[in-house]
Design a protein that fits this description.
The complex is a heterodimer of chains A (181) and B (157). Chain A has 181 residues and is an all-alpha fold. Chain A contains 8 helices and no strands. Chain B has one domain. The interface between A and B is large, with 47 and 63 residues. Chain B: InterPro entries: CPA3_antiporter_subunitB, MnhB.
């Protein structure tokens, strides 16, 4: 698998931001690295032709999450510490390294990006083919993702919507407020 | 103490206020586009709802959180959140009443044409309402912090 220049740059950028978010000592700096990571990942999603996921990542990961984190940070006391990076223990590196190795071990069994037909069981699978062939006839929407989300898997989506609603109610309960403002 | 910190967060800037005043209507339009057009292009209720919620955050960024808090009607926020759940559940359970399965949109065909497309659109709008109002709500709740909760005595709420 060969990478185009922009893909390689994005991957290095995302990896750098992820490591930055983990090791930067200043919480606000780590937060900014995290937001940049989300933005980079969302562009990668778009390049992998998953614009729905990319839009969600950009709006939720890079947008709302960053704002909420900054607000939480503004309500806490930020200790002034010296040193740019968090001191990292050898044990943490070993643990994270082992986890990365385990995750990387699964990569060779994934189909190549853009592979078609029998080489890619995700694309040629029975369920995927059914959605691609019948989504418009069944649901009258062109975006198969929306068809799956709102029609075929509508019950799951109702659950997700209720989870978001419950999150709001839970926040009200925890903060002992009665109204959302 | 927490209110002092909050006013310290806000910087009044003509540039930000003018930019937000100019951009906000377009952002809200884009949010509605993403919600309505999710059936034919990337997007949908979740994404559009977050973008719609961010309009209120932009206003808070420009004019201060307390000003935005006064401007937003809490009843509208609560109505959007619970209304969204009710709309979604009503559309889903309605088809069961008509003798079908959950969310079997085409059973509404006897009342309106293109019932499936409109049903999905309504569900997306419901999701958008939930997500937007919860995003706005979490924003204001986090901005207020634990200040009120700690000050008010137990059991008074």
């Amino acid at each position: 698998m060969s990478l185009s220049l922009i893909e390689a740059v994005l991957l290095v950028f995302v990896l750098g931001c992820a490591i930055g978010a983990a090791v930067l000592r200043d919480v606000l700096a780590a937060l900014m690295a995290f937001a940049a990571y989300s933005l980079g990942i969302s562009i990668i999603w778009v390049m992998l032709e998953a614009p729905d996921v990319g839009l969600t990542e950009a709006a939720v990961g890079a947008g709302i999450m960053t704002i909420l984190f900054i607000l939480a940070l503004a309500n806490t006391v930020r200790p002034q510490e010296n040193g740019l990076f968090e001191p990292i223990s050898v044990r943490t590196i070993a643990l994270v390294g082992a986890f990365v190795v385990v995750m990387l071990a699964t990569v060779p069994s994934l189909p190549a990006v853009g592979a078609d037909g029998a080489a890619n069981p995700v694309v040629s699978g029975e369920v995927t083919q059914y959605y691609i062939e019948n989504a418009y006839a069944d649901t009258e929407v062109h975006n198969a993702v929306t068809a799956v989300l709102a029609a075929y898997r509508g019950f799951d989506t109702l659950g997700e919507a209720v989870v978001v609603f419950s999150a709001g109610v839970a926040a009200l309960t925890v903060l002992r407020q009665e109204v959302f403002a | 103490m927490s209110s002092d910190e909050r006013t310290g967060l806000y910087v009044e800037s003509t540039i930000i206020m003018t930019t937000v005043r100019l951009v906000a209507p377009f952002v809200l339009t884009f949010a509605l586009f993403v919600m309505f057009h999710g059936a034919n292009s990337p997007g949908g209720g979740f994404q559009g709802g977050v973008i719609a919620g961010s309009v209120v955050m932009m206003l808070a960024f420009a004019y201060g959180i307390d000003a935005a808090r006064e401007w937003v009607d809490v009843r509208v926020v609560a109505a959007l959140a619970s209304g969204g759940v009710l709309v979604f559940a009503a559309i889903g359970l309605g088809t069961i009443l008509l003798g079908g399965n959950f969310l079997e949109y085409h059973l509404y065909e006897q009342f309106v044409s293109h019932a499936t497309a409109y049903g999905i659109e309504l569900v997306e709008l419901g999701i958008g309402g939930i997500v937007a109002s919860v995003a706005i709500g979490l924003f204001f709740l986090l901005a207020a912090g634990f200040g009120h909760a700690v000050d008010s005595p137990e059991g008074e709420n």
